[in-house]
């Protein structure tokens, strides 16, 4: 086995989901929406199966989808993107893999802001690189720029940022992106920005991407996901957007990873991205209501709920909720004693995990959330 290959041992995600299945617990750990998905896209995929070719599309994606991605960003974010900058991938994780492999090689370093999506660290290691981990400052999850600057060295090739952030639901501000731009310019670093939750901003804000920032336009990679925008997590249609020189390097990796993505789904996503802004607002509104339902219910039950501006997730502060700070231990107890599964935030960390926080998924039907709230209130009363 190559030394950079990740082990096949199970993760906290595996253990939590397995225990939830074993006990019949309500699973608020996995990001799996129960809320009605997008019937318009399902109909579009069905039509595409018989109305369009099912043979190989262009390696970089259907021209119609690449153009639709560019138009979507103008509509939703006021961001000018040329379709030539867009590379369609088999999900956002493949886009991340192609970007990391494009800019991080053996002996290189990449800086990761913790907590982070669990694929980042093994992908950096698979590329032969070394990860320098910089923890965000809890409970506000802000970027500690002094620590970040100290982590950048002569071998640093990339910084990985996630905004909106999973698991914290926080957004990186334009001011902080400007500061990141200055650091990247000074050290000639690429910023890989995981923006898959950009369509699920729940507080009325507009997504601010590194591509909005002048100093980052030619040194950033923007990662997007149709699965997250449309709540179709099994479709695995994503994309990377970058300046032409960076896009060429990403495409060279994508060529030998998956090469292409299911053509009917590409056609369907192109139609979905052309839906009016009102459709996207109504789609998000379901999640806004679900967020407030779970956050309010947990707060009434005595839990310290941290603000979440985006994603399908919210976190609770265990110590402030008068619970022990060992998040994995509390998560296990919640499954066995309350019948509700959550994910420890430490699962989104490297070798020195951030303890004391649990992540809950609120992308569920009202009845599911109400039952979970009742069970969790009784659990806290007994703890």
Automatic annotation (TrEMBL):
It holds the Pfam family Aminotran_1_2. It comes from the Bacteria. Keywords: Aminotransferase, Pyridoxal phosphate, Transferase. Its cofactor is pyridoxal 5'-phosphate. The keyword Transferase applies. One of its GO terms (cellular component) is cytoplasm. Residues 25-376 form the Aminotransferase class I/classII large domain. This is Aminotransferase class I/II-fold pyridoxal phosphate-dependent enzyme.
